[in-house]
Design brief:
alpha/beta, 11 helices, 10 strands, about 35% helix, about 10% strand
């Protein structure tokens, strides 16, 4: 009996040992798999934390104010030889007339130029376009990439000389009676956009997103007031003004107020932006909103700047940042125009 019991115990013991060995091996395999396949990171969150870090090249630019210089500052700097204008208009328009000493480049070529040319003689680089809006979009991308001495020239070549005026024809007051003081609350907090660059480091994710947004061009980051008003429900509309101005002169019906340089951070209201809907941002001139559209598109939001801003909607009611036929400085230029 003892032998039979002993044999059964040995069989049970051996069985238990084998089972423990199999379990240990299974645990080891699972552990190895876990080590080889760590949990997926939230790329958008990593990127935004990087962009909000004052110590990174991005340096919290989305909340650091404008990087715009008046045409008078460009003029003074060019005369003194300390400002280099980079004109991103077409080659034909550049040939018609441009600022003396300006370099003509496509928007996509500017960063390489800044990296490869000896520009040590200049204190600042001023990006010049037709109206200041594309230049603000590009300057935003460059500033976020660490080029802190790059600025956009306000109003573009339209502000340099009346011969290049593309603003007057785009001012309009046809929405003045449609603006309202009724308050629309911001959306509820939700998820951040989904990014799939394949990178885990904030700087690497940023570079991948920079290339995507730059390749898209400003056209993908802009929308007209006519398109917005034709489909108001299709847009999450951001009024990018202080609250007092949101109430007076008012805002697009249904627009939500976001305070400039405060409300688009992780610890404020960034997560109230939708990831499944186009975001239309507007300011007074379309230049600050172009900056913010670039900032948000880097994060993965489908953000668009409303072209020409309030000047294209309530021009006659505006008391600041208003384009007038007297705005151009009528400085000398080089070219055939």
């Amino acid at each position: 009996m003892f032998n039979q019991i002993h044999m059964k115990m040995k069989i049970k013991t051996k069985t238990k040992v084998w089972m423990m060995a199999i379990a240990a091996l299974s645990f080891a395999v699972v552990s190895c798999d876990t080590e080889e396949d760590p949990p997926e990171i939230n790329e958008a969150e990593v990127l935004i934390e990087y962009m909000e870090d004052p110590g990174s090249p991005a340096g919290n630019y989305g909340n650091s104010g404008l990087a715009i210089k008046a045409p008078s500052a460009t003029y003074t700097g060019v005369v003194a030889g300390v400002v280099l204008p980079i004109d991103i208009r077409s080659a034909d328009d550049f040939a018609d007339g441009h600022i003396q000493s300006a370099v003509n480049l496509s928007a996509g070529a500017v960063r390489d130029y800044l990296d490869t040319e000896d520009l040590s003689a200049y204190d600042e680089i001023h990006i010049v376009c037709y109206t200041g809006q594309t230049a603000s979009w590009l300057t935003s991308l460059l500033q976020l990439a660490g080029y802190k001495d790059v600025y956009s020239m306000k109003w573009g070549m339209s502000g340099w000389h009346s011969d290049f005026d593309k603003w007057t024809s785009n001012t309009n007051s046809d929405k003045a009676t449609l603006f309202t003081a009724d308050v629309t609350d911001k959306g509820a907090e939700g998820d951040l956009p989904t990014l799939t660059t394949g990178f885990e480091d904030g700087a690497d994710i940023f570079e991948a997103r920079f290339d995507v947004v730059l390749a898209e061009g400003f056209g993908e980051a802009a929308v007209s007031q006519g398109d917005v008003y034709a489909n108001l429900d299709d847009y999450y509309i951001i009024n990018y003004w202080p609250n007092a101005e949101y109430l007076d002169p008012g805002h697009i019906e249904g627009a939500m107020q976001y305070t400039p340089d405060e409300d688009l951070q992780l610890d404020t209201y960034l997560k109230t932006l939708p990831t499944d809907k186009a975001i239309a941002v507007y300011c007074y001139t379309g230049q600050n909103s172009a900056r913010i559209a670039a900032y948000l598109r880097l994060m993965g939001y489908n953000a668009k700047s409303l072209k020409f801003g309030a000047n294209s909607m309530i021009w006659s009611e505006m008391t600041k940042s208003t384009w007038t036929p007297e705005t151009p400085m009528d400085y000398d230029y080089v070219g055939m125009k």
